[in-house]
From TrEMBL:
Pfam families: GerE, Response_reg. SMART domains: HTH_LUXR, REC. The keyword Transmembrane helix does not apply. InterPro entries: CheY-like_superfamily (IPR011006), NreC/VraR/RcsB-like_REC (IPR058245), Sig_transdc_resp-reg_C-effctor (IPR016032), Sig_transdc_resp-reg_receiver (IPR001789), Tscrpt_reg_LuxR_C (IPR000792), WalR-like (IPR039420). It comes from Lentzea aerocolonigenes (Lechevalieria aerocolonigenes). GO terms for molecular function: DNA binding. This is LuxR family transcriptional regulator. Residues 2-122 form the Response regulatory domain.
Length: 214
């Protein structure tokens, strides 16, 4: 699988490139800013782009903006955005009603090779990846008349894992539950929150995120 990587910090960029190479990916491009990344991607589209949110020259949302452009011009390319901080609003900006092949991961996670590799493969396959830290922030927000209070502790755990973009099977493995038990919890969560069950994992994640962002 071919990956393009962009980060203005050379040491971090080279470190991630080494991790990806060790995991069996082919790093075909390494860029220090968003403009260089876009030029490399347009010239030779990879399977996945891994990009930092804050890039030169302004160090605001250049990487996120590049990710959106890549999604628009090359929808077949998976995009994984990295951030140094938990910023739910940026994660939600990356996803829309037709989102697929997109992810938002904290930079701290990339030291876990298994988690980084899994995220890259999932966005390459068209899945959605949301960092657990972002999900925890959204789920833990204090709201007036919070409907999440109607969920049991276990249902909240299922909701949180679901919002990360995980399948029912992954929820089983994470929470040590049987498939039938997970299905029952998922149905209960959607019923209590008044959400429609989507036809696929991505639709399910988008429904949950749309609810949590309110």
């Amino acid at each position: 699988m071919r990956v393009a990587l962009a980060d203005d910090a050379a040491l971090f960029r080279e470190g991630v490139a080494r991790l990806l190479t060790d995991a069996g990916f082919e790093v075909v491009a390494k860029a220090g800013d968003a403009a260089e990344l876009l030029a490399r991607v347009h010239a030779d589209p990879p399977d996945v782009v891994v990009v930092d949110i804050r890039m030169p020259p302004g160090f605001t949302t250049e990487g996120l903006d590049a990710a959106r452009e890549i999604r628009e011009t090359h929808p077949e390319i998976g995009v994984l955005v990295l951030s140094a901080h938990v910023e739910p609003h940026y994660a939600l900006q990356l996803l829309d009603t037709n989102a697929r092949g997109a992810g938002y991961l904290l930079k701290d996670r990339v030291t876990d090779l298994a988690e980084l590799s899994d995220a890259v493969r999932r966005v390459a396959a068209g899945g959605l990846v949301i960092d657990p830290g972002v999900v925890a922030t959204l789920v833990g927000r204090q709201r007036v008349d919070d409907p999440l209070k109607s969920l049991s502790e276990r249902e909240r755990e299922v909701l949180a894992v679901m919002a990360e973009g995980r399948s029912n099977q992954a929820i089983c493995e994470r929470l040590f539950l049987s498939p039938k038990t997970v299905e029952a919890y998922v149905r209960s969560v959607f019923t209590k929150l008044g959400l429609r069950q989507g036809p696929d994992d991505n639709r399910r994640v988008l429904a949950v995120l749309a609810y949590l962002r309110r």
